[in-house]
Amino acid sequence: MKHQQIHPDNDMDRLGQQLSAKLSTASLDLGHDISERLRIARQLALKSRPPVVIMQRRMAGSVQSQGTLTGTPEEGLNLWSIFASALPILALVLGLLVLQDMQSDDVTSDIARIDAALLTDELPPDAYTDPGFVQFLKLQLVRTAAND
């Protein structure tokens, strides 16, 4: 069900047109000297009044019946709108590249640290794969924790 929207500006315009029509019909009955004085007073009033910039009410975006948010039709596809659309995607891609580089450096440094520890240790690397040695390390940890 669609509802007709009533704008207060339309009512104001209609009222102004009705008032203008009534004043125009009433001014026909006035004498020449009175109408000239009114014309001069109108011109003086317009000169003394500062210029008014007529602002057109525009919505920055409107919600369509399908629920999508769109800009004004006069906006068009210009360089700034393309740049504003591409900027978040560019920031996302750059962020992902930085994260990948940081994680790659962390993994590489962890592997290098483990390799350095294995190569500088007194035990051969095969000892770390022996199940008995793993049990020996666990017992050593329990004994040092009990002594502390």
- The mean pLDDT is 77
- The helix fraction, in percent, is 55-70%
How many helical elements?
4
Query: Rg from C-alpha positions?
Result: 42 Å
Poorly predicted parts: none
Largest sheet: 2 strands, antiparallel
Derived from helix and strand composition plus strand pairing, the structural class reads mainly alpha
The count of strands amounts to 2
Multimeric status of the protein: single chain
First CA to last CA: what distance?
A: 79 Å
Strand line-up of the largest beta sheet: 1-2
Order of helices and strands: HHEEHH
**Shape annotation:** rod-shaped
**Portion in beta strands:** under 5%
How does this model look, in words?
With 148 residues, this protein is mainly alpha-helical. 65% of the residues lie in helices and 4% in strands. The protein has helices spanning 8-27, 32-48, 79-120, 131-147; strands spanning 61-63, 69-71. A two-stranded antiparallel sheet has the order 1-2. β1 (61-63) and β2 form a beta hairpin.
List the helices and strands and how they pair.
Layout: H1 8-27, H2 32-48, E1 61-63, E2 69-71, H3 79-120, H4 131-147
Antiparallel strand pairs: 1-2
Brief digest:
The protein is mainly α. It is built from four helices and two strands, in the order ααββαα.
Structural key phrases:
rod-shaped; mainly alpha; two-stranded antiparallel sheet
